[in-house]
Amino acid sequence: MSGTGDGSLYTADAGSESLAGWRQGDYTLSALEFLVANGWSGTELETDAEPVEGLVVISQTCDIVNTTPDKQHVVVCPLIKLTEQSFEEIRKARSPAAAMLEHPPEPCVAVDLGRMMSVNKSVLLRFERREGFTTDEARTAFAEALQRKLGRFAFPNKFSDEVLHKLRGRILNAHGKSESNHGKAYRSIRTTRVTAFPDWDAPEATVFFYFVLEPEVKREATRAEIGKTLDDHLGRITWPEGFRLEDPPYFLVTPEEMTAAEWIASQPVDWDFVSSAGAAFRPK
User: Fold this and answer.
1) CB within 8 Å of 248: residues ≥ 6 apart
2) Coil, helix or strand for 3?
3) From residue 153, how far is each of 15, 197, 200, 274 by CA, in Å?
């Protein structure tokens, strides 16, 4: 990827009015290369410019328009072309590898969240801006996808692969079945948190779940019915060495019933993105 040549820095006088139009999720098709370090000579990085469909700004909007001297750059991800199957996985939020734009340049083009680089704002000013989003709902979904990708707790591999991944499969299988008792139970759960005693790095960790319920008016199952499903599915799991389930293994709680200390001591389980062994995107 060729440089700007002048090494200029962005300042308020250099185009803050032009940058004011840029928001998180906006993209350009002006730049069709992405810089990647693929080697090390012993003294310097060896870089390649890989072809991409375009670049998407993932920096927060406030950071894009910030004109202070220490805010000279924005972070971008590449746009990539996916197979229809992989794009469908992204659309269903079953993979953290990529995110969707509300207004992509063409079908099956998504944002590769696995690769990021910095671009000086003086360079961004030279790009033709395309609007990635026009609704707050879609912008929020994109921001949440970034948060999930960058902020997920790293559970131990054995626990993720042999416990969470298997439980995730049962949840996904049941969730869409409208008449299934298991489906009704899982749709009555708002979120899941899990904690380990004494901690996740201990040679022997005892695991405990908090299943935080939807408001009662939104629940499709009673607490007893939800408990029956959880007892069934948790009881089928063979726990890996170094982990065991607490007795009792979980609490069914509302947000009001869960203490702040319990919330802080536990980690969220994002069932969509719980395992790195899940569906991976495949560029065309």
Assistant:
1) none
2) coil
3) 39, 16, 11, 9
Cα 159 from Cα 167, distance rounded (Å): 11
- Residue pLDDT, tens place only, 192-229: 999 999 999 999 999 999 999 999 998 999 999 999 99
What whole-number distance in Å separates Cα of residue 157 and Cα of residue 276?
9
- Cβ neighbourhood burial of 59 (10 Å; 0-12, 13-18, 19+): buried
Kindly state the tokens that stand for 23: 């928001």
pTM of the model: 0.63
Residue corresponding to tokens 């008792």:
181
Report the CATH number of the 12-151 domain: 2.30.30.110
b/e string for 19-50 if b means 16 or more Cβ within 10 A? beebbbbbbbeebbebeeeeeeeeeeeeeeee
Cα 211 from Cα 233, distance rounded (Å): 14
